[in-house]
Design goal:
Elements lengths: L7 E9 L2 E5 L12 E4 L2 E8 L3 E5 L2 H6 L10 E6 L18 E11 L2 E7 L13 E4 L2 E8 L3 E6 L1 H6 L10 E6 L1 H18 L1
Antiparallel strand pairs: 1-2, 1-6, 2-5, 3-4, 3-6, 4-5, 7-8, 7-12, 8-11, 9-10, 9-12, 10-11
Function: Catalyzes the dismutation of two molecules of 6,7-dimethyl-8-ribityllumazine, resulting in the formation of riboflavin and 5-amino-6-(D-ribitylamino)uracil.
Protein name: Riboflavin synthase
InterPro entries: ATP_synth_asu-like_sf (IPR023366), Lumazine-bd (IPR001783), Lumazine-bd_dom (IPR026017), Riboflavin_synthase-like_b-brl (IPR017938)
């Protein structure tokens, strides 16, 4: 479990057939082999580590669902260690289970904010709602507005400085995870309706 509060921007050191090697500093001081780390919001298991790097395995499903397979050496990735049981939830409950990859459609400055419009994957319609939570590249954000085929968020300067969302531009792919609580509620209502119609 994660909270969507990025601790560090790492960078991709190398891609392997079944894994990634990532450069990092801050998160490595207490990360051990077998620990979970969110890499751009994707929950992955540390399989090896060095003084300034760690390695994670990547399954084919991980590469199909996320933007990780499109990254090149040197690309920035958001990193977060898993939440301690006594830790503060600064964002929202994030599983690290990416549901879809979606492109940024446009960006526009609005005062100190950067408004970002993102394509809404059809399978996530109904799960992303105005003023609800969404995790993009592992960053906990509030949805501003939603339309039939897109949604918007607004990035404060701190988020742009501390995460790779500071690189936001049209065409950039983002890992998307909708709010798990909303998904449970929607699934429960759908199941309840189905059972009542039988």
């Amino acid at each position: 479990m994660f909270t969507g509060i990025v601790e560090e921007q790492g960078s991709l050191k190398s891609s392997e057939e079944n894994g990634l090697v990532i450069r990092a500093q801050q998160i490595l001081h207490d990360v051990e082999v077998k620990d979970s780390v969110a890499v751009d919001g994707t929950c992955l298991t540390v399989t090896e580590k060095g003084a300034d790097w760690f390695r994670v395995d990547t399954m084919p499903e991980t590469l199909r669902r996320t933007r990780l397979g499109s990254l090149k050496p040197g690309d920035s990735v958001n990193l977060e260690r898993s939440l301690l049981a006594n830790g503060r939830i600064g964002g929202h409950m994030v599983q690290g289970h990416i549901e879809a990859c979606a492109p940024i459609l446009s960006t526009q400055t609005d005062g100190i904010g950067l408004d970002v419009i993102i394509a809404l994957p059809p399978e996530l319609q109904g799960y992303i709602i105005p003023k609800g939570f969404v995790a993009l590249n592992g960053v906990s954000l509030t949805v501003v507005d939603v339309w039939s085929d897109r949604f918007s968020i607004s990035l404060i300067p701190y988020t742009r400085q501390q995460t790779n969302l500071g690189e936001a531009h049209a065409g950039m792919l983002l890992n998307v995870e909708s709010d798990i609580l909303g998904r449970y509620v929607a699934n429960f209502l759908q199941t309840t309706r189905s059972s009542l119609q039988v």
